[in-house]
């Protein structure tokens, strides 16, 4: 099930919030009310929002000041803000809205279809971004799992090789002891000593492939 995006509606007048809810209900997303800038900032502390519809003219903390607080927070600075205003003081007032971090500035009364279309674009962008994050996390987990599997396979192989080499080492040691006890000829003793050197070289190479030797560089196979 696809999780719904949250849209924050900020206006000090309940009738305006009700009108926004009526316009945006067709988007079938989660609409969250805030009747002041302070209430909006509190909601932004805990929830993630796709877009914020922010009234400019509010008592106390107005829309510009609220937007400035939103843009200063690392958690919320990238949330798109659409300013809504019932007044129009010309280009300078509009520029102030964009300077505060708004992605759009709409004067009331506005066309419900236009507002819904603008909001739907940001909701779609938000949902796509969430999907990308989920896919990236899934890929990361898959790569991590593949890495662990690759680490486990050589570990099991190294353990088996070590056990087999240990058996050969034990047999070679017994052979060398027997040759010493039997006072064998020099050639046999030399051959046994050569075998032990080869086994020692193999053991060192095998140990170099074990855990804790990642920084030692690749092991060099002994010359047999």
Major sheet? 5 strands, parallel
Tally of alpha and pi helices: 6
Strand content: 5-15%
**Number of DSSP strand runs:** 5
Alpha carbon gyration radius: 36 Å
Name the poorly predicted regions. Answer: 214-222
- Give the strand line-up of the largest sheet: 2-1-3-4-5
Mean pLDDT: 78
Structural class: alpha/beta
Global geometry: rod-shaped
Report the order of strands and helices: EHEHEHEHEHH
CA distance, first residue to last residue: 61 Å
Give the helix level as a range of percent. Answer: 55-70%
List the keywords.
6 helices; alpha/beta; 224 residues; five-stranded parallel beta sheet; phosphoprotein; disordered C terminus; single chain
Present the secondary structure layout.
Blueprint: E1 6-10, H1 14-24, E2 30-34, H2 37-46, E3 51-55, H3 63-72, E4 81-85, H4 91-99, E5 104-107, H5 112-182, H6 186-208
Parallel strand pairs: 1-2, 1-3, 3-4, 4-5
Helix pairs in contact: 2-3, 5-6
Describe this structure in words.
Helix 2 packs parallel to helix 3 and helix 5 packs antiparallel against helix 6. The protein is rod-shaped. It has 224 residues and is an alpha/beta fold. The chain is built from six helices and five strands, in the order βαβαβαβαβαα. Helices cover 60% and strands 11% of the residues. InterPro entries: Bact_response_regulator, CheY-like_superfamily, Sig_transdc_resp-reg_receiver. Keywords: Coiled coil, Phosphoprotein.
Quick summary:
With 224 residues, the chain is of the alpha/beta class.
